[in-house]
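Per reviewer request, we include the raw input and output of the structure prediction for the construct analysed in the revised manuscript.
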Amino acid sequence: MSVNKQIPEVPLIDFIKHSLEILKNPLPFHNRNFIKHGDIFRLKIGFKHGVFFCRDTEFAQYVLQKNQRNYVKSKIQTEDLVKYVGEGLLTSEGEKWKKQRKMMQPAFHKSQLENLINGMRETIIAQFAVIKPNGTLDVFPVLNDLAFQTVVKSLFTKAAKIEDMERLQFITEANQKMLVKELRQPYLGWWFNLSGTLDKYLNLAQEARTILKDIVEVRKSSGKRYDDLLDMLLDTTYDDGGGMTEEQLIDEILIIFTAGHETTSNALTFTCQLLAKHPEWQDKIYHEWSTLGGDNVDLMTRISASKVCQQVLEESMRLYPPAYFIDRVNITDDEFNGLHVEAGSNLLFSVYEMHRHPDLWQQPDRFMPERFDEGSRPFSSQYFPFGAGPRKCIGNNFAMFEMIIAVTELVSKFKIIAEFETIEITPLITLKPKNAILRFEKR
């Protein structure tokens, strides 16, 4: 990136010196550099290579919305992630992405998702059965299983075998951990290849594809309809009337598994921790649930009217955005506010930093759901929990419906008590919680 404005540079020696810290949690390192250097800085990660870190929301809007045609996802998603989950909606680019997005959009419309919400609630209630009154547990595994099972049931209804889904969940999480190692320890790439470590995980990815292929073939041969997500995806057609190939369908299902359960389980866990620290908001959600009629009212009506619960979820995702960074690479040279952005520049927008920027948010580190009293629209220029622009997450409505159901079901039955001091995080591909130890008292 050659610029008219001088961009501060963090030297390679600093990256190497803090490499162990960055491997464990890079956010404090980046935060110190934002405080020291301002809203844009360049981090040298090799003798010739560097990444531009940004928390400038105007630049983010420009890249993600106003001139999005000139910016594509980096090789992290278009190459590194592709080898594990295929070339689906999350990882594809250009005309292929446009074609897939246009075809799949109707399957995630609110009117279609309404067919799935009662099944969502049944799955959520079943998963919450493991929570015992006055018991103490790390809630993340419970909510991780909940989110995964919700995706499974929404996709396959009852067609999937329990052992297959357990294996698929293991593969999804194992491959994510391997990808994190590749990204944060690029200097070990030769060893991952030579030792056979990479091949081991690529074989797991192929195993996942085989499991899903068998499920799809059984569904096609059965002739039965369940009006679940799999049926919706099988029904989708391109402009020429043709449907997805089997390989493309598997790619999209893998993306739904990877992106659809991971971010939701993270957001739900952080929300429960925040509610445990702020019990007055539990009472507000419970009062809202009761006022709306509790279990005696139409579920979609209750979801749509759960304003307080949505405020809490929005604030939770502001403080702890599951997708905590957005990466882009520009195709051609570009200009923005005095910056000349040379083609091929690696840009990384820190959603975590933008959501806590002291110039954008009143008391940015404080949990204040009331700031979303009028919804998230007033903050659309600085709030990106599901991304922004044409590539905004296609499953955002699915995730919000699921989370509102889960939080209201939990709060209607239990009071959530904190058994931890501070909220800890583990930044991997997504922002994951750590040591979310809670106690549940029967309401």
